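hey so u asked for the seq, here:
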Amino acid sequence: MKTKTWIVLFAALALLSAAAIVLMNGGDRAVAEIVRDGEVVKRIDLSRVTGPETFTVEDGAGGYNVVTVEPGRIRVEDANCPDRVCVHYGWLERSRIPILCVPHKLMIRIVGADGGPDAVSY
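ran it, structure tokens below
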């Protein structure tokens, strides 16, 4: 084959691969789930958030986590747990590692739009 044919073939393959990756990962669509004590208390489609929103999740025993959501990302802004690891985690965008607050039994994770994992790797 000629060099030009190989270049066109390679470019087409690269374009198809990129399109497949975007489609398999659901594009830019990410949903944050706030889970407290094993139950989903709130689901937020991060692609539909238009501005900052802050709300508090309480554990019923005096503990609380202040959660802030911005377009495409979420974080724990404040908490009254002893170590505040959840606050120091920072913004969660596409990471597969959830934000955890063990003392308040709180987890914030990113899932796909259908409630399943955003991506799976073997």
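DSSP finds two helices and seven strands in the chain. Strands lie at 31-36, 39-45, 53-58, 64-70, 73-79, 99-101, 106-111.
lmk if thats what u needed
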